[in-house]
Design goal:
single chain; 344 residues; alpha/beta; 2 domains; 8-stranded parallel barrel; two-stranded antiparallel ribbon; 14% strand
């Protein structure tokens, strides 16, 4: 396991993050305490130190288990959790959202469940489009000043919100977001339009949830079994021909180099400069996912994967690639200007 600096901070996190959304439930898509502990131990043994959970995961049990698992060596771990959303069934307008009130009550509740004095990375779980940016950033900064949080991040928010928030925080001397958490995989590349260039320019770390597209890229829906059964099983993930085509190229590359499909999909995400968050249900799945650390995709295989999963960047980015536009903007000297700020 290697480590990366989390954005513009000096915090060192492992190149794969362990997602704890599956920790602590008897439901079919989750793992019980014993299996969760085994997965945690295996991840730590591999060198992992970055654990991601949220206050609503498995009705708060995930936070309790994460806190219990890190307790014996707390300072070794980078514990990340989130606020914004409410437990299902709560009918209270202020029990959810990004406002100061919910931030305070959610943060205190998470610290209690985790049984920790502070949280390393506190994520805004998603942008609520009701709370002013300055209220969110000042409330988070107050929590940092109080010693309850070390760093802050933003999940599932537009790029313009993130850039406005960090610019405002920079001007006012408040704590800035050091990371973003967004869906990213070979079947979901839309964040390459705005989020990638913004994060690169502002030195914000990119972490990817669902890097296997809810198992679509693991091979379990494209290898064996009847086509109808596979499609019915994953119908709520909006399967289409394009996504299946991508999954089959992943399978082909995996067969070519002798690794699993999941390892190819995770290696691709890592080679794009992002930190994949692996959300596994069994110890076997964890070991397989960690095996992606030894996979480096070559130029030919990267080209195959990029081609089948390519998206249109749209306006204005496609407009910028036109020869006439480049010539007009550079006085006809574009080929002689070395531009390290080029949008790519």
């Amino acid at each position: 396991m290697r480590y990366k600096l989390l954005g513009r901070s000096g915090l060192r996190v492992s190149e794969i993050c362990l997602g704890a959304m599956t920790f602590g439930s008897d439901e079919g898509w989750c793992a019980d305490k014993s299996e969760s502990r085994a997965m945690f131990d295996a991840y730590v043994e591999a060198g992992g130190n970055f654990i991601d959970t949220a206050d609503i995961y498995t009705q708060g049990e995930s936070e309790k288990l994460v806190g219990e698992f890190v307790a014996s060596d707390r300072e070794r771990f980078v514990v990340a959790t989130k606020y914004t959303n409410a437990f299902p069934g709560r009918n209270d307008a202020n029990v959810a959202g990004n406002q100061r009130k919910n931030l305070r009550q959610s943060l205190d509740a998470s610290l209690k469940r985790l049984d920790l004095d502070y949280i390393d990375v506190y994520w805004v779980h998603n942008w609520d489009f009701t709370t002013p940016v300055d209220e969110v950033m000042r409330a988070l900064d107050d929590a940092v000043s109080a010693g309850k949080i070390l760093y802050i991040g933003l999940s599932d928010a537009p790029a313009w919100v993130t850039s406005r928030a960090n610019t405002l925080a920079e001007l006012r001397g408040w704590t800035q977001f050091v990371g973003m958490q967004l869906e990213y995989s070979l079947v979901e590349r839309s964040i390459e339009r705005e989020h990638f260039p913004m994060c690169r320019d502002m030195d914000i770390a990119m972490t990817a949830w669902s890097p296997l597209a809810s198992g679509m890229l693991s091979g379990k829906y494209t290898r064996g079994g009847s086509e109808a059964k596979r499609l019915d099983t994953l119908a709520f993930h909006d399967i289409d021909d394009r996504k299946l085509a991508i999954a089959r190229v992943v399978d082909s590359v995996a067969d070519d180099i002798g690794v699993s499909s999941a390892q190819v999909a995770l290696a691709w995400v890592r080679q794009r400069g992002t930190i994949p968050i692996i959300g596994v249900r069994t110890l076997a799945q964890l070991h397989d996912n960690l095996g992606s650390l030894s996979v480096t995709l070559g130029i030919e295989h990267l080209a195959q994967l990029d081609a089948v999963s390519a998206i249109e960047l749209g306006h204005p980015y496609d407009f910028f690639t036109k020869d006439l536009v480049k010539a007009l903007g550079t006085g006809g000297m574009g080929d002689l200007i070395d531009n390290h700020r080029e949008c790519r």
